Every structure is written in C-alpha cells, then in structure tokens.
Amino acid sequence: MHFEGTHKFPMGTRLVWALLNDPGVLARATPGIKELVAYELDRYDAHFHIKLGPINSVFKGKLDVVDKITLRRYKLVVNVDAPIGVVQAAVIIALQREDDGTVVSFTGDGQLSGKLARMGQRVLTGVARMFTKQFFKAIGKETPGEEILAALGSLSGGERMAVPIKVTVNGKVHEHEVEPRQLLVQYLRETLGLTGTHVGCDTSNCGSCTIHVDGKSVKACTLLAVQADGATVRTVEGLADGDTLHPIQEGFNQEHGLQCGFCTPGMIMTSLELLENNADPGDAEIRHALEGNFCRCTGYENIVRSVKYAAAKMK
Prior knowledge:
The chain is of the alpha+beta class and about 325 residues long. The protein has two domains: about 1-155, START domain (Alpha-D-Glucose-1,6-Bisphosphate, Chain A, domain 4, 2-Layer Sandwich); about 160-315, Ubiquitin-like (UB roll) (Roll), CATH 3.10.20. The protein is about 30% helix and about 30% strand. The protein has helices at about 15-20, 25-30, 120-140, 145-155, 185-190, 245-255, 265-275, 285-290, 300-315; strands at about 1-10, 35-40, 45-50, 55-70, 75-80, 85-100, 100-110, 165-170, 170-180, 210-215, 215-220, 230-235. The strands form two sheets. It has a seven-stranded antiparallel sheet. Helix 6 crosses helix 9 and helix 7 crosses helix 9 (about 300-315). Residues about 155-160 have low confidence and may be disordered.
C-alpha cells in the first residue's frame, strides 16, 4: 500500500517541527491514540483505538522516528498489530518553508495482513486520508511544550542550517534548501520523488544509484546535494520521450537485460554514457564500462546484448 499527501500550516518551519516532535502534542493530536509512551529517545510504545470508515479496532505496537534531520525531515517507522491484522509501514515526513507558511509532505509504503489486507487499496487509502486530515487539523490547534521549544532555540544558526541550492534535473529547474550533509541520492528520491535512482549498498560499490551530472555518470551516493548546486542532472526518469522508451531502455527490455530490476536504472545510466562517447563498443569495452555496477541476477550476458542493441538503434 502506498500513500502520500501534503498539508500547509500558516506558521514557520521551526514551530511546525516543534509540534511534530512533541510527544505531548502527538499524544493529543493523533486520532484514536490511547497511550504514547517514550521508552527511548524518538521511540514509542503506542496504543490506538482506530474508528475510521470500516475500521474499528485496537492497535498496539511501536512507533520509531529515525533518519532525523532537524527542521527538515524524518522517517516514521510503524509496527503495530490488531485483531484485524498487522501494519508495518515507513513514512518520510518532510518540511518545506514557503513565504506564507510551511508545507509538510508525507510519502510512505505499508504492508498489511489479515482482514486489513483484504479491504482493498481504495478503502485503505480513504482511511489514511481521513486519518492524516484529522491529525494535521489537530496539530494546527496545538502549542508545543517549553522543553521542545528550548531545545530548538539552542540550535546554532536555527533554520540557517539549511543551504539553498539550484539544480536542473531532467530539464526542470529545482530550488530547495537542503541539509549540508544530505546526499544527492536522498535529495533526488526524497525531495524530488525521483525514486528510479536506487540505493543498494550504502558503500558506493553497487552502482544502483548511478545518474548523470553534467553529462558524466556519477554514483549519487558519493555526492552531497550541495555539490550539485548549479549542475545539470539526468536520472533514468528523464530518458523516455512520453511513452516512447529511449533506445537503451528498449534494449534492456528487448534483450532481457534485467530480472529483479533493482540494478537496472544504474546499469542504464552507465551504459548510456558509454554509448554517448563510443557509438560502437565491443563486448570488452561494455564490460569494462560496467565494472562499477553490480547485478546479482542476470550474469551480465544479456546486459551486454542490451547495450549492443541500443548501440545499433542509436546509430
């Protein structure tokens, strides 16, 4: 199950962040919450009684806040169970400052079991929409506690922690403020929603996150978003012309150059740079170009054939 949405608050980013991170506020604002107890920093035992749409059940489990970048974003990991099924979900919540307020965006995916799983995507999406609407409406009426505000007030530089960048991605100019340590792959996936760039290893070895920066193939996990300021970036989403695949995409399709597909975007972007600089590469040249991209499924033979197919189509 996938869900996403936005809500705009007519208040500053600092205050919105404080509200979303205050356990007392969350305990009052979350629909159906009966008990929210912190057992570690940003980790909670939760007890709900959800009455929304066709759902009327008690849920118990854990809520964990991870990957937090102060005043910008965090990930909420949900593991709760009920007599009607189990919910496991991960939701990225991001804040974007605007002139007249702060936009909170959320995007997540969940796995459901039991009766919940049998309710269908439309019903569950509707329930999720009602839940978030009630939650954000209640949050807007709250005031954060003094302890949370004091903690934020002690941050050096406050909202100046963010750095403005301007980058052209797939022909479209984007301007955002980013955390100085945010990776380019995180910016593409989480801020721009370009999830075709995959994260496969966190060690810069696998090549699944390969993109083009100013015409050169680059592993997006090795660059900071601030380093892309002023750059021109191309991701796998920028290759097709409407419904017409780029020849390199067509090649991987026609020659069965993928199985699970996880490595495929990186393979495609690396192969494309090769073909843009060498119109007729031999097998050895293709293999050499792809040395930094790992595939755990195909054995590479079909990948080589895919690149040769694209080379012929691009002549």
